[in-house]
Amino acid sequence: MKKPVVSNYELQCDQWRQRFLAMDQGALLRRLPELKVEGDYLTLRHFGRRLGVHRREGSVVAPDDAEPVSVNTRLNVYTLFHYCRDGARRTGEWLPFAQLKGASPFGPAFQKTVTEVFAATFSGRTEALEEAFRRMGGVRLPVSDVGFEVKGFECIPVRFHFWDGDDEFPAQANLLFDRSATDFIHVESVVTIASEGVLRLAKLAGVTLRSGSF
Fold this sequence. Notes:
The protein is an alpha+beta fold. The protein folds into 2 domains: about 10-85, no CATH class; about 95-205, 2-Layer Sandwich (TATA-Binding Protein). Helices cover about 40% and strands about 20% of the residues. It has 7 helices and 9 strands. A 5-stranded antiparallel β-sheet has the order 5-9-8-7-6. Strands 1-2-3-4 form a 4-stranded antiparallel β-sheet, with helices on one face. β8 and β9 form a beta hairpin. α3 (about 70-85) packs antiparallel against α7 (about 185-205) and α4 (about 105-120) runs parallel beside α7 (about 185-205). It starts with 7 loop residues before the first helix and ends in a 9-residue tail after the last helix.
């Protein structure tokens, strides 16, 4: 009988799980005040969804729903725990992804696989998008047709801006991050956080991603 094939992402995720098990959890709780101890789990929220990390096994679950936690979401949690710096604090200075520290090489890919996918997915669907943001616990922002600030994690908020298209121009979008995002997590993980945010918005809105390479 053949053994089930395990993806490279799952193998990488298990390596990160092992790293978590070797961490000083007391120090981790001090670095990330959003973490809560609830029985056998450390809990936090990722785009409004409560997650629990088992303190002795390292597994990641979603206590409030029956759906499995995706490998990308698990990686986001583990890399947050690993990269968060002592004394990291939000600055209140909002930047597009490409202007974050070390992000410029990944800027074109971010535009294609995150920003353009977000815009195309919700073209003509502003009401569904607004409802998805509200269900995620977002805070309304001015400027764009639909703009909300949501919490990728409590320490890594994301500002989504969306302008719907018309007969002449396609829908447009932009995502902004606090300059401190890369003090909490590796810059490549910021891409994964944004991708997971778009996926969760699509799920909450009941729509399918229009294009992209998630």
